Amino acid sequence: PAGAVWAQGGTLLMEAGAEIRNMVGRAIYADGGSITIGGKIYNIKGDVDMWQGTEGVALHLRNEAVGSMSATGEITDIKGSGNAVFATGEAVRFTMKHGSKIHNFANLCGVYMKNSSQLYMDGEISKLSEAVAVSLNDGAAGEIQSNGFIHDNQCTPAVVYLRAGSQLTIHGKINNNESIGNCAAVYIVTNG
After folding, report:
1. Nearest to 56, CA basis, from 96, 28, 83
2. How far apart are CA 148 and CA 167, in angstroms?
3. Residues of the chain where predicted confidence (pLDDT) is lower than 70
4. pLDDT at 157
5. 24, 86, 91, 160: which could join 55 in a potential S-S bond, CB 3.0 to 4.6 Å?
6. Among 25, 38, 28, 39, which residue's Cα sits nearest to residue 5?
7. Region of residue 64 (left: phi > 0; alpha: psi -120 to 50; beta: else)
8. pLDDT at 150
9. What residues have CB less than 8 Å from 5, skipping those under 6 apart?
């Protein structure tokens, strides 16, 4: 199985008040199409038996999928390993609008982008522990926009991690984070 919702193209609009919760597996798998999360995804435990394993326990984007969290979107209480949001591919984008939140879980990366995917973050990532808040890999690009706020995380190896030609632009804030690894803010690694 791919997820509770498996989109292959088309449009999914999860409105404010809607929930995906209390399950083992993945909330949304988008193999193309447009996904908007305006509701709450919580109490999801990743499972290695899911298609693509634990890459994107809350949301997995690939094959030119475009994902976004509206101002009322929330991802919290994600369990297991891997990452909460995962995106791969040149035309793949993930956007967090002002007011959206990813928060309160441990041992998973908040947002993991790779293979030239693009992150536009104007929302908030907070209260993650023993994890990376944002990881940009293999040519991914990210922008923390003016309202973007990464705060009160206990991360390892860093709050924001860049690897192998990835780029980050910061207009927002990275405040009050603690690292139990290499650094507390932005960690740049050139090896691939």
Report:
1. 83
2. 16
3. 182, 191-192
4. 85
5. 86
6. 28
7. left
8. 98
9. 12, 20, 27, 28, 29
Question: How far is the CA of 86 from the CAs of 43, 183, 188, in angstroms?
Answer: 17, 23, 19
With contact defined as beta carbons under 8 Å apart, do 125 and 152 qualify? no
The token pair that represents 125 in the structure block: 């990532």
**Integer CA distances (angstroms), 88 to 62, 92, 116, 136, in order:** 5, 6, 7, 10
Cα distances (angstroms) measured from residue 129 to each of 110, 152, 186: 10, 9, 16
- Region of 142 please: left (phi>0), alpha (psi -120 to 50) or beta: beta
And the tokens for 94? Answer: 């993930």
Query: What pLDDT is stored for residue 76 in this prediction?
Result: 98
Q: Give 178's strand partners.
A: 154
Token duo for residue 123: 């929302």
Residue 61's alpha-carbon distances to 54, 129, 138, 140, in angstroms, are 13, 24, 16, 14
